[in-house]
């Protein structure tokens, strides 16, 4: 910093930006990039997906994050959150919260329902952004590889619930996520996400249409399907995300097949998230406030 | 290392894989007689390879006699057809399933048989949307695949399980190969990538893995001369997305709506046109990635990576590329230089140019001389 004028000269920022964009384009068009065995494309994620999501994260949802220090510095971690909001926007915002808030800018590897992978385009976007099918082999493979894995055990029961049930955690399924954590000795980090419930409030569910389209539900919100494509614009709710202290599992590795241990641990995670949700909601009296 | 092998029987020597395996075994001092079993006359270029190989022209129906008469010590079963040929699907199934059944029946009765090496495929894992991203040898298929070859493979592995139960004294090695690629490979998939314009499934970008044919030969050879009972995934480490592979090869992808492709594949199968079928379609919708830890640990051999194997293929077929990496690099340079020239010109004309110090204009010239990629990377680092 002794002579900033000299340092500035070669740094014509506009030229650099053009050169970098062109070189990015060339690398993409000639296939000179790496994808991992799950299909994760870090370059595309960092340069295309995340910048778009980041705008939503900051400007639209005005997200605030707490408890980032509860995420593991490096090595495996299983982030377990509440699911809501008709589409899995909460998972995407969680990825940004972690990537931008973590000192090592870690990527969250999400586990998605197999329905996601049946849908063309969506399946590939999910894989390229680091997601994979929610099944124990994949979860354990990612965790043994030292990745930070994100999972929403409520699944469709969470995203597709009625607006009157907002912030009420649904059943946690069979606790497959707990057994994956136990088998790999990975700490579980519960996370509470407030704000996603209000983006597309579900007031009704057109079951016949859902059955026709083979979807788990067909949402009716104040704007969808009435306003057509405009109804796809999420309402600008205020988001709060809080990571809770990690639950260590290293001493339970030999009990990964004990259903009692699994259910208890799943319950503990669920209670933690529910309490944190209540606390965050008290902090945010107006869902659409600053 | 095992003792010398007296008689090795190799099936399918009229084809590339079988012929090369037989030739390599014949050249190995640890192997005595190598007998090739195939109902078809090998083509001239394949016949050249088979110098030290005794040939028996017979189909699998006569395998019991051949195996018994020769008193075979090792049987290497490579006679599988991966896509329907002029004979059509029924001939393919006859050869794959019935042929394997008959051969296994022969092996079951052979008193001195010590070892069986079988070719299988990673198609054994089926294709389903609920599949894990990476298959280990223990993964069970979740759905019966649509493709004929994949269904044959499931049948064949089923018979083999029965064989292992009945003859636990015979060491059986099952090699589940990823699709072959390389400069010398000639398969449905290599022909696909060799076209300048390649159809893909709209909205799908499957993860692919390849195996270099030379590595496949090496693994089969080691399975014969060493002892590695069990089932192994054999593939090059790493993954290429289909779109990425097409771009690396400089081909043009044409996405087609899937129902249209399935109909076309079914029709092509019915009319015996071409070699594309539901096997390829399943692969191009679901992709297929396997874990090769067991192979690497047990064989002490690591096939070259998927990317390296594919590069070898690209070099051979570079002539039919539409867009090469060099074209793109040249285009990038031209565009960048063009933009710089325009900006330099406008900066000179506009009074605003005063805010752009002359030194910067000079540095533009030097920046152009810098090796490609370096300035961009430093920019990436800041982000």
Describe the fold and architecture.
The complex is a heterodimer of chains A (290) and B (383). Chain A has 290 residues and is α/β, with parallel strands linked by helices. Chain A has a single domain, classed as Glycerol-3-phosphate (1)-acyltransferase. In chain A, 41% of the residues lie in helices and 12% in strands. Chain A has helices at 4-8, 13-29, 42-60, 89-101, 114-118, 122-128, 136-144, 156-159, 176-184, 207-212, 259-283; strands at residues 64-66, 77-81, 108-112, 132-133, 148-151, 188-194, 204-205, 219-220, 240-243. In chain A, helix 7 (136-144) runs parallel beside helix 9. Chain B has 383 residues and is an alpha/beta fold. Chain B folds into 2 domains: 5-320, NAD(P)-binding Rossmann-like Domain (Rossmann fold, 3-Layer(aba) Sandwich), CATH 3.40.50.720; 333-370, no CATH class. Chain B is 46% helix and 15% strand. Chain B has helices at residues 16-26, 44-47, 63-70, 88-109, 148-166, 188-194, 213-225, 242-248, 258-270, 278-286, 293-299, 306-316, 325-349, 358-369, 374-382; strands spanning 5-11, 31-37, 54-56, 74-77, 115-121, 171-177, 180-181, 197-201, 207-208, 211-212, 230-234, 240-241, 252-256. The chains are: A alpha/beta (290), B alpha/beta (383). At the A-B interface, helix 2, helix 5, helix 6, strand 4 and helix 7 of A face strand 12, helix 8, helix 13, helix 14 and helix 15 of B. Chain A: This is Lysophospholipid acyltransferase family protein.
Keywords:
heterodimer; A: alpha/beta; Glycerol-3-phosphate (1)-acyltransferase; seven-stranded mixed β-sheet; two-stranded antiparallel ribbon; 11 helices; disordered N terminus; B: 383 residues; Rossmann fold; seven-stranded parallel β-sheet
